[in-house]
Specification:
By secondary structure, the protein is mostly beta strands. The protein is 0% helix and 54% strand.
């Protein structure tokens, strides 16, 4: 009667997960949809969508996603397959690998940066995890 239908991810377009200011997560996050983080994440983040780290947001760990906007703080390793937008208030420290990069004047960018050539979108595996 209640058959589970496998979702391919297209019905998640336009939906956004949100972690609000004052929330702290220790662990890994895997999401097929877009994600907005105004709290703190200590761990890894993988998404097929877009990650927005708000002005009060902070991430310490590894990020793999298709697109990202960062206004808060990031420490670690980030791989953005398409476009990474770094806002003026952002503080970025670590390793950055991107398809395209946009940095507003005033941003703190202390990182090694590698431009990716012909990157493929992030694909989620059947177990819900990203590529190793």
């Amino acid at each position: 009667m209640f058959d589970k239908v496998k979702k391919n991810g297209t019905e998640l377009l336009g939906k956004t997960n949100r972690i609000v200011e004052g929330t702290s997560i220790v662990g890994d996050i895997v999401s097929k949809a877009d994600f907005r983080l105004d709290g703190e994440l200590i761990g890894n983040f993988t998404s097929q969508g877009k990650l927005v780290i708000g002005a009060t947001g902070a991430v310490k760990g590894e990020i793999i996603c298709n697109n990202a906007d960062i206004e808060g703080e990031f420490h670690g390793k980030i791989k953005v397959l398409e476009i990474l937008n770094i806002k003026a208030a952002a503080k970025i420290h670590g390793e950055v690998a991107v398809g395209k990069l946009s940095i507003e004047p005033g941003a703190e960018f202390t990182a090694t940066c590698t431009m990716l050539a012909n990157s493929n979108p992030v694909i989620m595996l059947e177990d819900g995890k990203g590529p190793e």
